[in-house]
Structure formats: structure tokens, C-alpha cells
Amino acid sequence: MALQWRIVPGQSLRSRSWQGQSVLYNEVSGATHLLDDATLELLHGLRDGTLMTDDWADPALQRVFAELAELYLVEPC
Questions:
Q1: Where are the alpha helices (DSSP H) in the chain?
Q2: Fewer beta carbons within 10 angstroms: which end of the chain, N or C?
Q3: Looking at the whole model, is its pTM more than 0.85?
């Protein structure tokens, strides 16, 4: 069974986007991260609960979430 993820508590996903990239402020670590718009949309989908069961089995998605976990934006649940 694939890992499921959630937004780290305390994150509001405050961001600004332009020309396909977004700057996201991490309320937990105090860091600012440069993300592409697709990754930000993935975080919004996670927050909003719009990811489907089949999405969790996608190895590419799992890699992205593992990278976001290193930034303290998401955690396994």
C-alpha cells in the first residue's frame, strides 16, 4: 500500500505565483521555497482532499511528496 500524506499542521500554503513558478512561505520552518505551479497545485489538492485513491499509487507522486517532506511541508499519515 502506498503512503498517504498530509500537509504539516500549521501550514497555510501562503504563496505568490508568476510565469509558472511560485514562492511559498513555510510557516513551520520560516523558510521560503521556490516551487513550480504544478507542485503548488499538488499541495492545494492535498489540502483540499481532491487526490483520488489511484493517485497515491503513482511512484512519481510519492517522490514529489518525499521531496516536500524534506522541506517540512508534508508528512506521512
A1: 37-48, 59-70
A2: N
A3: yes
